[in-house]
Design brief:
By secondary structure, the protein is mostly beta strands. Strand 7 and strand 8 form a beta hairpin. The two termini are 23 Å apart. Strands 1, 2, 3, 4, 5, 6, 7 and 8 form an 8-stranded mixed sheet that branches.
Length: 90
């Protein structure tokens, strides 16, 4: 599931499910601007928060505390995308 607001197509994270090599942000609008990435566990606690250059930076597997489901939010100006991630580790 991925939802977007603020115009344009939303960001996505791939691969999803996330393995040991981490994952990347994909921006179909290809703005090449820095984005704010936040990953939450299912209790709503922030487990990862960083400003990243989309498609260039990797969200490392170490951002995830354990295998399971997480929510993400990616913000660039007025564009915001949210979705669900599954971390499988191996």
């Amino acid at each position: 599931m991925n939802t977007a607001s603020g115009g344009g197509v939303g960001f996505t994270i791939a691969p999803n499910p996330v393995g040991a090599s981490g994952t990347r942000i994909i921006d179909p609008d290809s703005t090449d601007k820095a984005v704010d990435v936040t990953i939450f566990d299912l209790a709503g606690r922030i487990v990862f928060q960083q400003k990243m250059l989309d498609a260039l930076d990797i969200i490392p597997a170490s951002a995830f505390k354990q295998k399971g489901a997480y929510w993400y939010s990616i913000r660039e100006g007025s564009r915001v995308s949210t979705g669900k991630l599954l971390f499988i580790g191996d």
